[in-house]
Design brief:
Radius of gyration: 48 Å
Largest sheet: 6 strands, antiparallel
CATH class of the largest domain: Alpha Beta
Number of strands: 16
Shape: rod-shaped
CATH topology of the largest domain: Beta-Lactamase
Helix content: 40-55%
Order of helices and strands: HHEEEHEHEEHEEHHEEEHHHEHEEHEEHH
Structural class: alpha+beta
């Protein structure tokens, strides 16, 4: 049973198209072949003839002076169907050609010898022929062999034309695809709400979308190259260019906020970002970037920050007022003086913790990093500087935020107060050492007292201060705590999950 899928047979027309033979005209290589064929065969005329459906066209003509004739006059239409050279000794005696206008009229063909020209797929295209106006008995074997060899050379030229056409077609296809892709990119880029730009690997800006020109109001092309530098606010140029040069040198993504001159003349806050596009070897081919107008968001954030700073400042004042009220109450009721003093100290420690992590202005911001556990400890332990560096901080640092600062302040204020009253800081040579260990998922904090009064009886741990410590560590921070007493003093080890100390760890963990 024959397959239903039959490969399409190559046709004369398809071969002519694939070889681009229709465009052949005065080809120098073919002209050298026909000139040599005429000389080799001692004939006045030699032709490379391509036979079409209605005409035969001479793509190389030596001695004839015509470009084409009707197909029905064609000797080559017969020659191309054979497998060997077709020889006509006297056309007037050949019934196929005796009445041919090329025989009865100019150029008065008598002798003809044509080598078939066939494509690599066997499709007949025409012939390489020699013609004489006098009858001849034929060609010598050398001439026959030479004519076949020259016909092969004609096909070499044709195949070269075919490859050239294929290359041109492929290039045209690639260029068309690139042009279509570029057009799609431009349409997409021009409809985006952001400003879009691209640069060469060295950072030379060579493209901006329509949104860029709408925003800036500058003439098209005026910001190519390094012309865009003049669009930055003078105070932001060094920052923007510094980060851009760093990205060009390292290939790292580019991201920076700067003020960009708007078409209205004002400078608006903009977020600039760019990523490199690389080839298979990792080399940067191009940078693509965007500029996003964030001016309104920036203004709203600044307003919110001012409000937040004002609220936090008022909360700080509330701590002071509460502390003052406790002090006044203790004066009115001397019997609660001790309790009031402890309560006021705890309120003060909470106020310090809040002041450490609260939103600040540039002037009120503390010198220590506000998300630093060691920074919080330094703030809380500042009242004990009189102890001449007897409170020592060791080990790592860890991130905290406003939620964890309050329970941490209560715990370590309580420990420091007890150490000053009864423990290591109550003795001239006593030392408190706070060691922080930053581990994979948690943070271990060890409070160690040395050099205090010898411990003979382990103190009770059921008082308010101990309960406050346990509540803060376990309930608020979700951690664990162990107390141990040595002859030298108290050792407390607290293990706290990182996620309860800082929101940032929860987001990235």
């Amino acid at each position: 049973m024959k397959s239903l899928l039959v490969a399409e047979e190559p046709t004369h027309s398809s071969e002519m198209i694939s070889h681009d033979l229709a465009s052949l005209h005065s080809d120098a290589d073919l002209d050298r072949i026909t000139a040599f064929a005429a000389k080799l065969c001692e004939a006045p005329i030699a032709l490379v003839s391509l036979v079409g459906p209605t005409t035969q066209r001479f793509v190389s003509d030596h001695g004839l002076g015509q470009t084409e004739t009707p197909r029905e006059w064609s000797f080559c239409a017969h020659a191309m169907e054979g497998s060997d050279i077709m020889v006509v000794q006297d056309a007037t005696k050949d019934t196929r050609f005796a009445n041919n206008p090329l025989v009865t009229g100019e150029p008065s063909i008598r002798f003809y010898a044509g080598a078939p020209l066939r494509s690599s797929r066997g499709v007949p295209l025409g012939s390489l022929c020699v013609i004489d106006s006098v009858p001849r008995t034929g060609l010598t074997q050398l001439q026959l062999d030479g004519l076949k060899l020259l016909a092969d050379q004609v096909m070499v030229v044709f195949r070269a034309r075919k490859q050239l056409k294929a290359d041109k077609d492929a290039q045209a296809e690639v260029e068309s695809a690139l042009s279509e892709t570029e057009e799609k990119f431009r349409i997409l880029a021009d409809t985006m709400p952001q400003m879009v730009w691209s640069t060469l690997p060295d950072g030379f800006h060579d493209y901006y979308n329509a949104r860029w020109y709408e925003f800036t109001g500058v003439p098209v092309g005026s910001t190519d190259g390094e012309g865009w530098n003049g669009m930055f606010h003078p105070d932001d140029q060094e920052l923007a260019w510094g980060k851009w040069r760093h990205s060009l040198a390292t290939g790292e993504p580019y991201e920076v906020e700067y003020r960009l001159r708007h078409s209205s003349g004002e400078y608006r806050w903009t977020l600039g970002r760019a990523l490199p596009m690389r080839d298979h070897a990792g080399e940067i081919l191009r940078w693509f970037g965007t500029c996003t107008d964030i001016h309104e968001q920036k203004r709203l954030l600044e307003e919110r920050e001012i409000v937040s700073q004002e609220l936090s400042h008022r909360i700080k004042n509330i701590f002071a007022v509460i502390g003052g009220l406790v002090g006044l109450s203790s004066k009115a009721h001397p019997e609660i003086k001790e309790i009031a003093r402890d309560l006021r100290a705890r309120i003060v420690s909470l106020g310090k913790a809040h002041d450490f992590v609260r939103p600040h202005s540039a002037k009120s911001k503390p010198s220590t990093v506000q998300d630093s556990l060691t920074g919080l400890f330094e703030t809380l332990m500042a009242p004990y500087v009189a102890y001449e560096r007897r409170v020592l901080l060791k080990g790592d640092d860890a991130a905290i935020d406003d939620r964890s600062a309050t329970p941490l302040a209560l715990v370590f204020h309580e420990l420091a107060t007890n150490a000053a009253k009864y423990g290591a800081l109550s003795e001239p040579d006593g030392v408190v050492e706070i060691e922080i260990e930053d581990r994979l998922e948690d943070v271990a904090i060890t409070w160690t007292e040395r050099g205090g009064q010898p411990v003979e009886v382990v103190p009770e741990t059921s008082g308010f201060g101990s309960q406050l410590i346990d509540m803060s560590i376990r309930n608020q921070l979700g951690g664990n705590m162990e107390r141990a007493w040595s002859s030298d003093g108290l050792v407390v080890k607290a293990v706290l999950p990182k996620a309860s100390l800082s929101r940032s760890h929860r987001r990235t963990g």
